[in-house]
Amino acid sequence: MTVPEHHTRIAEERADTERRIASLTGRFTAIVEGSEFTTDDDEHDPEGSTIAFERAQVSALLADARRELEDLAAAQQRLDDGTYGLCTRCGLPIADVRLDALPAAQTCIDCAG
Ligand SMILES: [Zn+2]
């Protein structure tokens, strides 16, 4: 893939990730607001612990998505710097098939393993 193609691909991934963050944020808000109408007694109320579990799950997904967004921003920076596609650990080129699957990959398969 050429640099402009990588740019397009990463921009698309970023847009996807941003949409995911927006929808997860909406879900998180809905869970928090919904839980206001139930009891505060999480420990003894089975529904309360389900809400706590859901909230923890959504917040973990949100953390993942935010990390992904940071990785994609870093990948865009490397594209601009001309170091994109080079392993940040050993400096060798990262295989195209790996970049294709993981456009924000910073290390080659050997260093990642
Ligand atoms: Zn490497």
TrEMBL record:
Ranges where the Zinc finger DksA/TraR C4-type domain occurs: 82-113
Ranges annotated as dksA C4-type zinc finger: 87-111
Protein's UniProt keywords contain Transport: no
GO molecular function, a single term: zinc ion binding
Pfam families, sorted: zf-dskA_traR
PROSITE patterns listed in its UniProt record: ZF_DKSA_2
Classification via InterPro entries: Znf_DskA_TraR (IPR000962)
Positions in coiled-coil regions: 55-82
Record's keyword annotation contains Zinc-finger: yes
Record keywords, A-Z: Coiled coil, Metal-binding, Zinc, Zinc-finger
Protein name, per record: Zinc finger DksA/TraR C4-type domain-containing protein
Source organism: Rhodococcus opacus RKJ300 = JCM 13270
Taxonomic lineage from the root: Bacteria, Bacillati, Actinomycetota, Actinomycetes, Mycobacteriales
